[in-house]
Specification:
307 residues; 3-stranded antiparallel beta sheet; two-stranded antiparallel sheet; extended; alpha+beta; 10 helices
Length: 307
């Protein structure tokens, strides 16, 4: 009957049957176990969603309409506190997000970025505290730069929302003119914190909480429903790596070996971990792939080999 498993479990002597809580019935527990296994092993994320290029473009377009100011910055001799705060947020967001999206870092690592050489046509950047690079350099001799953590950064004018070259130049110009008052030194934080009074604090790095607050603020402003997306500070790493692996235009996707190096993944990283990190959205495509043998594929951007 419908009331057979309701209430606390007990043995009914009159009917010689067990009655009790239906929540612990075997059918219920089997269903819970199956759902748990699916969510835990088949790819529904409990970690951050990817900050896709389309998200970055939406945020870039919105922020320009709200924060855009005149450049070059070094021509402005003085800024009001309100103007400095606005520039700090606008330029800081774009420099930090473009950097994290380009070289695949979480925000905390950005405080340890060292820009050590700038020249045409590119400049070089080093992540001096990236965990897997540190392990590699501590355990092996870097004979010919094979395991170096140095990245060459080139302009990307066709991708203005993630053009790290342009955004970082604007940000450094602001820091040198209005925060540090001099050319950036090696001991200066590239992303200094801001105090509770909204004044920039050059002596300490930007906090995780500030970056998370910015993610929410800029996404909300751009019309991205933060209630339906889980975007933590790891979202840039996921978004940038997925774009380079499978979503870039034809002949612009990267080989897996390049992805492995660029992301600083260790040699011992399990291949399943890496692939799931890059591809877990594929488990939930609504479209079928029954036409995979079709001689001419329409979805050329879904290649995983970089051709």
């Amino acid at each position: 009957s419908s009331s057979l498993y309701r209430g606390p479990w007990r043995w009914d002597e009159s009917s010689n049957t067990a009655v009790g809580n239906p929540a612990t019935a075997s059918d219920v527990m089997d269903t819970i176990h199956a759902a748990s296994k699916k969510h835990g092993e088949e790819g529904i994320r409990t970690h951050s969603e990817a900050m896709s290029l389309s998200y970055m473009e939406c945020i870039f377009k919105w922020s320009q309409s709200v924060f855009l100011v005149s450049f070059p910055l070094h021509h402005a001799t003085q800024l009001s506190l309100k103007e400095q705060q606005m520039l700090y947020k606008y330029l800081g967001w774009h420099a930090l997000s473009a950097t994290a999206w380009t070289v695949w870092t979480r925000c905390a690592i950005n405080s340890s970025i060292l820009i050590y050489e700038f020249k045409i046509p590119h400049w070089k950047l080093s992540l001096v505290e990236r965990k897997n690079w540190q392990s590699k350099l501590n355990n092996e001799v870097d004979l010919q730069g094979m395991y170096t953590d140095t990245y060459e950064i080139y302009p990307q004018p066709k991708l203005p929302s993630v053009d790290m070259d342009q955004h970082m130049c604007n940000w450094i110009s602001f820091l040198e003119s209005h925060v540090y008052g001099q050319i950036l030194q090696s001991e200066d934080f590239l992303f200094p914190s801001v105090g509770s009074n909204a004044i920039v604090q050059p002596g300490s790095p930007m906090s995780h909480d500030v970056v998370q607050k910015w993610i929410k603020e800029f996404c909300t402003g751009a019309g991205i429903d933060v209630a339906l997306t889980h975007l933590s500070t790891h979202c840039f790493w996921r978004g940038g790596s997925q774009y380079r692996f499978m979503l870039a235009s034809v002949r612009k996707c990267w080989m897996l070996a390049t992805i492995h190096w660029w992301g600083g993944w260790g040699e011992g990283e399990h291949v399943n971990t890496l692939i799931r990190y890059l591809l877990d959205e594929l488990h939930y495509y609504k479209e079928g792939h029954g036409d995979a043998l079709q001689p001419i594929q329409c979805e050329v951007n879904m290649s995983f080999l970089g051709e």
